[in-house]
Amino acid sequence: MQPPASTVYGSTxxxxxxxxxxxxxxxxxxxxxxLEAAGCDSTAMLAEAGLDLKxxxxxxxxxxxxxxxxxxxxxxxxxGDPAFGIKVASHIKQTTFHALGYGLSASxxxxxxxxxxxxxCHVASDAIEYEFSRIGPEYHFVIEPAAxxxxxxxxxxxxxxxxxxxxxxxHDYSPLRIEFRRAHPGRIEDFQRLLRxxxxxxxxxxxxxxxxEAIERPLDGGNPELARHHDAIALQYLSEIERGNIQxxxxxxxxxxxxxGEPSQEDVAEFLxxxxxxxxxxxxxxxxxxxxxxxxxxxxLALAYLSAPRHTVxxxxxxxxxxxxxxxxxxxxxxxxQSPSDWRAAAGIGTGS
Length: 353
Fold this sequence. Notes:
Largest sheet: 5 strands, mixed
Structural class: alpha+beta
Distance between the termini: 44 Å
Strand order of the largest sheet: 3-4-7-5-6
Number of domains: 2
């Protein structure tokens, strides 16, 4: 099933220049519905933010991040509500996150749902990254902005994923705790009333913390066939919108080729049918280097591989393209402050050799 071509309002698809970070127009529509519920004129506020309601038509329309962030600032100022972001989540529809929303609903466990959210996160916005990992008896879902994102936007994502959990597990379900990187809001009552979980503000990262039993419990509504179908649609859509995103293309090449040894920038450039000089220029225009992308990719893969008991530390060293175990251990200590074996022991996953 081929999705229609996506459109980006106020911009053009990225070419040789820096990629424009975008958000689904359906997400912006959820903000507008929340504004209307608060008694505000969402059409006027869209215009003030440089957006037009017609530009949001269609399930694949996308808006530049600069415009959506401006809309968040305008919305918070107009409502005077510190919990406005949390309240936006109640205006999310099944179709807000394109095929990803249906895939999440068809997941067989919450663990599978969060893994799916991490894998296809750029369907909703390429300004947000997720990390999902098991830490001892807990699972941590980290929301990590990859650009300057409004606190309220992250609040909305926290509430959206909590609503997903409750739709799958039951209305009374709550995580062990929720940590916010943002500062303590001026009024906390609505945060407490809507989230119904222990809250911590001013944390190092924004994360939802879950108990292992609940995350791994089979869900009555799980439908693997339906989930795979919507995964395929989400993947097609991602391929469409990220085709010109050079950072994403480099990460994809590295993910596939690291197990054969660390590829050089020249190797990756050749695989992408461009010169090493052109690749370096394109990455420079995005404010990133090849070594930084390589390091980031290895870090994400390392945590994923080490979370799987079937992989030994030696396996992971090989899969990440390190020439020696000592090189992997040094890199992992830089990422986490622990050795791979100590990290696994603390997570209760077992020890690798």
